[in-house]
Amino acid sequence: MMNCKETGIEMKQWNSDEELFALMKEKLYTPVVGDILDQMGYKHQFLPANIRPLEALVPADAYVDRSQPDNRLKVAGYACTVLENDVFENPKKPFGYLTEALDQLKPGEVYIATGAHHSALWGELLTATAKARGAAGAVLDGYSRDTPQVMGQNFPVFCTQCWAQDSSVRTYVCDYRCTIEIGQVTIHDGDLVFGDIDGVLIIPKEIKDEVIEKALIKASGEKTVRKAIEGGMTDNRFLGYYKERLELLWTAKRGYFRLHMKIMWLRPCRSFLQERGQR
Known about the structure:
Elements: H1 17-27, H2 30-39, E1 52-53, H3 54-57, E2 75-86, H4 98-103, E3 109-114, E4 120-122, H5 124-132, E5 137-140, E6 143-144, H6 147-151, E7 157-159, E8 161-162, E9 171-176, E10 180-182, E11 185-187, E12 192-196, E13 199-203, H7 208-230, H8 236-251, H9 254-278
Parallel strand pairs: 2-3, 3-5, 4-6, 5-7, 6-8
Antiparallel strand pairs: 1-7, 2-9, 2-12, 10-11, 12-13
């Protein structure tokens, strides 16, 4: 198997979930992953556009220590789905099954909740608990509160807005590790969650490896095209040629791709650039 180091694309790029999540946050961004999902026929995988990093919703410099690496703007991990509902009086079991849902969070999971809309779904103590469990982040179809304290924990939280109204008499966690829907997206427990400044998308767990491998190819290819453009290359024939080769790679089976990538993509593109350089 070739390592394809010359292309900048690593083959079987991860050996553990931790390596997968780190690779996604380092190499990928939601637009390129979303494009791959579209091409594979999964056209409704982005959560609503108003679910964004908490850091992007507030004057972050007032709360963030910029001398430290910022972990707040990207999230990658497996979904731990949580279903909530609105209540209109003190429930017999305050907060419902919130404690149980938090206590069983596993390392590398993303707490992702929907269903209640009249109070904050997240805050300081939930952030501390999730972080202590090794969770990868939180995605809320709703509000977060305790903003300075949440931001100070350098933990990725994605939500619709900040609002301080308490959930204890308004919100009830009725189930967890169940199928939920946010916007037009159906989310199963264990699906892959990926979010950044441009939004949050859901990768069905049964296709996650294929999606990530194809997204890495596309991301690397787009860097190649950008470098060519910045170097003065404006020939549409090159861009069309590149697109054709990339489409061939996307439709190839994994073994075929690994064996023939250098022939189908690297050498022809290099030859074309050399030809252009000699003119």
